[in-house]
Amino acid sequence: MNEAIRELQPKEVWNKFADLNAVPRPSKKEERVIQFMLDFGESLGLETFKDAVGNVIIRKPASKGMENRVTVTLQSHLDMVHQKNNDTVFDFDKQGIEMFVQGDWVKAKGTTLGADNGMGVAAIMALLQSTEITHPPLEALFTIDEETGMTGAMGLEGDILQGEILLNLDTEEDDELDIGCAGGIDITATRKYKEKSVPSDTVAYQITVNGLCGGHSGIEIHKGLGNANKIMNRFLYGASNSFMLRIAEIDGGSLRNAIPRESVAKVVILKTQSDEFEKTLKEYESTIKKELNVLEPNLKVSFESIKLPKGVMGKKAQTRLLQGIYAAHNGVYAMSAAIPDLVETSNNVARVLVKNGKAKIGCLTRSSVDSAKMDLANALKSTFELASFNVEFSGTYPGWTPNADSKILKVAEAKYKALFGEKPKVAACHAGLECGILGQNYPEMDMISFGPTILGAHSPDERVCISSTQKFWKFLLNILEDIPKK
């Protein structure tokens, strides 16, 4: 299946992408891909090493005639988001990604593709291996754990990199040059509750919300896509006011930076209410599908009878849970006043897990303004504390402040216009890029971010555009030819 990928142009990039996607590389489990990258650099006879936290650095001397140019650091992250469709049988810890070509796109079979940020990694690998491409001195920085905390970038010490210019290859629109990004913070709300015995004369149901698009909780948060956790909670909140409903379990969402696609709840109700309950569920599915029919055409709310659970939440704890999730802001919170059409602040209610006397709600709050990030974080903290949860902040990382006077930006803008006959969009993005973190230890480094067009990142609908990859590769090579002299 992946052999067709190797025949795409530019072959040097697609072959490296296929090699990379054969290596399992989940966040926080990057041992295999780290070794893969160390072996790759050493096989080329290049200076190759791993830092204290696991980032891999490979250095390549300039091509002939380019020795007097400024050293360029090329940066991408090794890990990828692991998501799959609920009917896909796949072991991310053991299997390589199965890819196929559909028109002008490369996709994966029922899983995330890993184009985020595998295309950037592949492009850098192709540059390191080439004996024909004209380039200045190169320093490749392959970071780890970008998707679940950016701990690789955070752990990079300030005396390792030698580059004066950094090209981050992690942007997902090929006509965009990013010069800024949002920072983020994880919010985790937890509480314990005493399980109660299952009321008599009850029946149990499993309710499933699925078929949602999901996607990147930064790049795609402005689209208003359905959040499975909020959709499930809306029904449970309403039904608990109309029926003798008790929650046994909820399992919704997965990763902090992915818009939740699925949620499953197990509940019990009185036997005498079962017919009316099923009718209400069907009516709710119809209502929510009408609301989201344009954005979520495949949304489904279904139910099935199951055997009675061992225990359920008490009424008071259940009410607090449902109220807390209902009140928690999800989606865009504020738009930027400084940059048109840029989401400034947002929140993703990413994870809801209720089981065995423990409830946990996980959110990722983002903002390009640090004070606004903390304002929304504190609003969510207050919401959950009012619902009797304990709240912790973690994983905070800074945004990347735009520098409109960047010298490498001027080079890239001129190259883009000369190559493609139009000006690129110079923008900041609502995703978290590692540039803001790297800039803390390397404040003088001149940075921009760009990449090929990737849609549906962080979901099984992830896909990368073939013609856009050709454009991206051409653009990258031309930028490297015009790096300033020392």
TrEMBL record:
Q: Which organism is it from?
A: Zobellia barbeyronii
Lineage per the UniProt record? Bacteria, Pseudomonadati, Bacteroidota, Flavobacteriia, Flavobacteriales
* Coiled-coil regions listed in the entry: 267-294
SUPFAM superfamilies (alphabetical): Zn-dependent exopeptidases (SSF53187)
Q: Does the keyword Hydrolase apply?
A: yes
Q: What is the protein's given name?
A: Aminoacyl-histidine dipeptidase
* Keyword Coiled coil recorded: yes
Q: Which residues form the Peptidase M20 dimerisation domain?
A: 209-292
Alphabetic keyword roster: Coiled coil, Hydrolase
